[in-house]
Amino acid sequence: MRPGRVGRVGVVRAPIAKAAVVTRAVTPGPAPVAKAALVTAAVTPRRRRI
Amino acid sequence: MTDHDTTVVGPIDFIIVEFPAGESNFNGEMIDELGKLMDANTIRLIDAIILVKNDAGAVEALELSEVDADGPLAALEADLRDFLGEDDLGNLAAAMDPGTIAGVLVYENVWAGPFAAAARRAGGKLVADGRIHTQDIAAAIDAERELENLGA
After folding, report:
1. Which long-range CB contacts under 8 A does B35-38 form with residues at least 24 apart?
2. Which residue from B49, B90, B135 is facing A25, i.e. has the nearest CB?
């Protein structure tokens, strides 16, 4: 680590928790490719349901 | 790489990408994709550093040039600044599991800068922001399907 980093006022103000999605990403279910296709379909623009 | 407009600053994000010890590869495809984002002026890389957390939880911070003295990582470092301080590195490493190595990237979302400036000029102010992870979308889809099956 370069000396320039020592003593600097931090911008990350608190310890960062591991992202909750990391644990959900390894839960049982459809294969990642199948899930990716579903997610892609969910965010593809189309007429809104009212 | 295109010139950066210093009069407009986009939001700054960080990511921490963790790998099991001995399985890290910060060269190759990751660097290529990062370079494409920078060349397209989608992001501007501000800082990057490698964190190593041993099995006991102790953290060591390595500059890119310490990991890859003559390779693409070191070349990448030439345009960066020491934005993160020592305290920041400790806070970021809290997300890591013991026995892992992680790459930390801090970057400006250059694409968002002009829009944010326009919103401010129009009198708007940012009151919240966030990210919807694909895993959460997939979970919502699964939950909807379960509800549909229960109702069928």
Report:
1. B38/B1
2. B135
Nearest-angstrom CA–CA distance, B71 and B36: 17
- Adjacent-strand bridge partners of B50: B62, B103
Per the CB < 8 A criterion, the answer to whether B45 and B38 are in contact is yes
Q: Are B137 and A42 in contact (CB under 8 A)?
A: yes
Tell me: the pLDDT tens digits for B77-92? 888 889 999 999 999 9
CA atoms within 13 A on the CB side of B83: 20
- Cβ atoms of B133 and A21 closer than 8 Å: yes
Answer yes or no: is the ipTM higher than 0.85.
Answer: no
Q: Collapsing DSSP states into helix, strand and coil, what is residue B37?
A: helix
| 3-state DSSP assignment of residue B109 | coil
φ/ψ of residue B110, rounded to 5: -60, -35
Alpha-carbon distance of B137 to B143, in angstroms, equals: 10
Nearest to A38 among B16, B86, B141 (CB): B141
Record the pTM.
0.83
Is A14 at the interface with chain B, CB within 8 A? yes
A49 touches chain B (CB under 8 A): no
Measured between beta carbons, the chain B residues lying within 8 angstroms of A8 are 82, 84-88
